[in-house]
Every structure is written in C-alpha cells, then in structure tokens.
Predict the structure.
Amino acid sequence: MYLKRLRDLREDNDLTQTDIATMLNIKQTVYSRYERGYQNIPLEHLLFLADYYKVSIDYIFGRTDNSKINK
C-alpha cells in the first residue's frame, strides 16, 4: 500500500528517509520501500510514526483528512 502521507509528513518536518530509518532502527532502503508501498510497514513502526508526528493512523492511511487525534 502506497502511503503518500508518510512522505508528506516526513518532508513537512524537514526529515530525510535516513533520519526516520535511524529512529526506527532500520535501513534507509527499507523505509523507502514503506513510503513507496513496496513493503508493508509493521504495526510497531506505524504506531511509532503516528505518535512521533502526532497524527492518527487513519490520517497516515488516508482514511481521513483530519490530522488531529480524537481523544
């Protein structure tokens, strides 16, 4: 699944793929495959990124355009 919002969030925060890969303790090439949809992103990485960017998982998946987390 192509997750365009992963790239958008990363770029909006002035981060490189290498920056995010380092946070996730993976190689940059693996993270690149997540963004391009060539490899499924593990749930623990998805949860980490949602928390890091302070957005919902639904926002990352494009199920909503509301980036705010409902509490």
